[in-house]
Amino acid sequence: MSSPLITRMQPFGTTIFAEMSALAGRTGAINLGQGFPDTDGPQEMLDAAKAAIDGGRNQYPPGAGVPELLEAIAAHQERFYGIRLDPASQVLVTCGATEAIASVVLALCEPGDQVVTFEPYYDSYAATIALAGATRRTSVLRFPDFAVDEASLRAAFSARTRLVLLNTPHNPTGKVFTRDELELVASLAREHDAWVVTDEVYEHLLFDGARHIPVATLPDMAGRTITISSAGKTFSATGWKVGWLTGPQEAVAAARTVKQFLTFVASGPFQPAAAVALGLDDAFYEGLQSSMQRKRDLLCTALQGLGLQVSRPQGTYFVVADAAPLGAVDGLEFARRLPEIAGVVGVPVSVFHDDADAARTLIRFAFCKKDEVLQEASRRLAAAGTHAG
């Protein structure tokens, strides 16, 4: 029989992350493909999760999230950005940021609506837009600086634009959108009466003094912005799947209506632990940034030593390099051969594009790994570069 999968989902097969992680497992290659750390998060958070399990908090949590996490999220937004929220009506806990994105897009988009996003985009964006029956309209961020092209962005908007899906700091490029770029997005959203949905999961992974500016803090944007983040990236707990969204009461209520029929609730004992993590002192956040910046520098130096052009990221877990000097012609084909060539796994950036030619030979590598793992990956890449030469 032919596949019973609905037409609009047929372009989406196994995610590139699952494919590349499985490839790393089969070959013994170092996995710099999927963005998860190989160390645990802060001990205070881990101890809080154990205490929650031992304390019997193993059943369904409240639909919106446990009260202490709702309050901690609101406190975090005020502490770092001056955003004041009502925890009871303007915060919703989700099963990771991926579910938060799905809940919002499915809640706000009708079939035929258009969603503006930048490419390369995180792969769930395209799939979620398709599930909603909406159409994606994209503006390309081009290597190596990934600057916003104003003419391209303006052309992506139309009378049918329902929302803008924005990711900053940006995966896979490591770009942190500037205030001018965000104000351009905001002005177009206001002009077209569109919602802005911001994926900010890398908000605390910033380097070289870069500053994260939430769209919700821009003039006249709090009432049309839905902000998404999670505990996974900041606190090295990607498997816990504790995410959240915040915004105007009516938008949060709309997302909650959809979310309750996706997972209903999730991550019961991990929610109070995430609340503890959000309240950690500034030293934790500063240490996270300095540690990740050092790891970024280590991997960037190794890639540049191979003669590769590297886009030095201002944030996230990732660095993008042009692998053409290593013989890459097609990024996906090259990524599948890289474990054999170098004993390292990366992810082809072209799979995050509608315009694959914009990233034909670009590879994304994750540096959220132990120093010794990055050093060994660098050694292997150097040996492969010598062989390629």
Largest sheet data: 7 strands, mixed
Strand content: 5-15%
Counting DSSP E segments of at least 2 residues, the number of strands comes to 13
Summed up, the helix count is 12
Question: What is the radius of gyration computed over CA atoms, rounded to a whole number of angstroms?
Answer: 20 Å
Described by the principal axes of the CA atoms, the overall outline is globular
Q: Report the span from N to C terminus.
A: 48 Å
The poorly predicted ranges are none
Which structural category do the helix and sheet elements fall into? alpha/beta
| Helix-strand sequence | HEHHEHEHEHEHEEEHHHEEHEEEH
Strand order of the largest sheet: 2-8-7-6-5-3-4
The helical percent reads 25-40%
Structure characterization notes:
This protein is α/β, with parallel strands linked by helices. 40% of the residues lie in helices and 14% in strands. The chain has helices spanning 16-27, 43-54, 67-81, 96-108, 123-131, 150-156, 179-191, 249-259, 270-278, 282-305, 331-342, 371-388, and strands spanning 30-31, 91-94, 114-119, 135-140, 161-167, 195-199, 225-230, 243-246, 310-311, 318-322, 344-345, 347-348, 362-366. The protein is globular. The mean pLDDT is 96.
Nutshell version of this structure?
This protein is α/β, with parallel strands linked by helices. It has helices at 16-27, 43-54, 67-81, 96-108, 123-131, 150-156, 179-191, 249-259, 270-278, 282-305, 331-342, 371-388; strands spanning 30-31, 91-94, 114-119, 135-140, 161-167, 195-199, 225-230, 243-246, 310-311, 318-322, 344-345, 347-348, 362-366.
